[in-house]
Amino acid sequence: MRPRTVDGDAGILIIGDHASAHVPDDIALGIDPALLTRHVAIDIGVAPVAEALCATLGCAAVLATVSRLVVDLNREEDAPGLIPIASDGHAIPGNALDHDGRAHRIARFWRPYHDVVAERIATTHPALLVSLHSFTPQLASRPDEARPWHVGILYNEDDRAARVAIPVLEAAGLIVGDQLPYSGKALNATMNRHGEGSGTPYLGIEMRQDLVSDAAGVARMAGLLAPAILAAREALA
Questions:
Q1: Which residues of the chain form beta strands (DSSP E)?
Q2: 3-state DSSP call for residue 182?
Q3: Which candidate among 32, 110, 139, 156 keeps its CA 20 to 30 Å from the CA of 42?
Q4: Which residues, listed in sequence order, are joined to residue 130 by a DSSP beta bridge?
Q5: 47: buried, middle or exposed (CB in 10 Å: 19+, 13-18, 0-12)?
Q6: Phi, psi (5° rounding) for residue 46?
Q7: Pairing mode, if any, of strands 128-135 and 4-6?
């Protein structure tokens, strides 16, 4: 199942691993359908913010078309959590797959997505990758954990774009988490593969979901992110 793509010529490629809550009709996850509107199924706000940024900046995008509950595209192919059997306290019984079931799920969804990302990078040679995610203000499994950041900037070994973008975002009045709400050293699979693996600078952005849950929030966030993305592209081009 191929991702959705947006064309652009700004030297920037946005990647949205968790941009969709879609579950194909032939996959039964065994969950309450209401979960598909929540953070366990989709990174809320990623698709509309990506679309707004593409319209504003003229950049390209590759956006997932399947829920992270079907397969988590921001995991290595052999990671235990690639096909989650639970998420934030919710069991996913339909994901208790045998070896062949897991292999089929990977071949159907994970590989086509990453093949398209790799092909886009190889053919367009973007100056900057932007990995766009969003995080819930509060995890049900960690109710006492405060998450005050407006955005988080994540990276592993390559922090070139992060060092440019963070001060721009802070100057715009945002509370910015440097490797928060979690570290890119621990969870950075797509950018490890396509950014660090190709030597392409990247900016890993996490947006707090309550700030991008409606059209006004999406427009505001896109307007705040655009200058930081442009600054990183100009500094690293």
A1: 4-6, 12-16, 60-63, 86-87, 90-91, 128-135, 151-154, 176-178, 202-208
A2: coil
A3: 156
A4: 14, 203
A5: buried
A6: -65, -50
A7: unpaired
One-letter amino acid of 181: P
Residue 45 Rama label (left phi>0; alpha psi -120 to 50; beta) = left
CA atoms within 13 A on the CB side of 17: 28
| Residue range 88-139, pLDDT digits in tens | 888 999 999 999 999 999 999 999 999 999 999 999 999 999 999 999 886 6
Both structure tokens of 25:
């009709």
10 Å CB burial of residue 13 (0-12, 13-18, 19+) is: buried
Q: Are 1 and 66 in contact (CB under 8 A)?
A: yes
Residue 229 near residue 131, CB atoms below 8 Å: no
The amino acid that residue 191 corresponds to is: M
Taking residues 69-92, report their average pLDDT: 94
Please indicate, yes or no, whether the overall pTM of this predicted structure exceeds 0.85: yes
Q: Which fold has domain 4-236?
A: Aminopeptidase (3.40.630)
Take residue 230 and report the two structure tokens written for it. 């442009």
With 0-12 / 13-18 / 19 or more C-beta atoms within 10 angstroms meaning exposed / middle / buried, residue 112 is middle
Q: Evaluate the omega torsion of the peptide bond into residue 201 and state whether it is cis, within 30 degrees of 0.
A: no
174-192 per-position pLDDT tens digit: 999 999 998 999 999 999 9
Residue 40 near residue 136 (C-beta atoms within 8 A): no
Encoded tokens for 235: 């500094």
Q: Bridge partners of 152?
A: 177, 206
SS3 label, residue 145? coil
Enter the DSSP assignment of 131.
Answer: E
